[in-house]
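Report of the visiting student (M.T.), summer placement. My assignment was to run the structure pipeline on a short list of targets and document each run. The first record concerns Retrotransposon gag domain-containing protein.
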Amino acid sequence: MWIQRYELMCEFSKWDDVQATRAFTCFIDDYVLAWYMLLDNEDRSNKQTLFRKFTERFGRKSIEKVGLWKDAADLKQKQYETVSQFISRIERLCFLAGQTLMMEQFILRGLRPEFVVPFVTATGLKQNFSVSEAIDAALLADITMQLVSKRTSHQCYRGQPSNRSNPE
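After the run finished, the structure tokens were exported:
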């Protein structure tokens, strides 16, 4: 990991803690520099605290969590997966990543098109709705489709006529 190589370089250069923390900004990119600037002065001037916070933020486990979060963002509902099963997959990844802020938006983006239903009220199409309302509507649509599918297959199984035309 980068911070371990930096520590070795500090040791090889015989830098004390003050020199190591001052030189730190010379070796980081803009993204890490922005993070560094948000630290308290005490955290920036203490080598052990600075390196620990860097490792917490940019260490291997943090990178793994970012990967899980990205996986959740890219997830799409499978063809024969229910909305509930899909939501469970995204929730699991978001909780493992420790990031649930965008979870509902990931769910809405990953739903199959047939579950992204328009909102119709008594006065017409509703333009403004929350992500939670959209997910609730998708769950309701999924449950309704499952019930209709079960009822249709149950009727066909019992020998009752189906809606299909009979070729004679």
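Strands lie at 120-121, 124-125. The mean pLDDT is 79. I thank the supervising group for their guidance throughout the placement.
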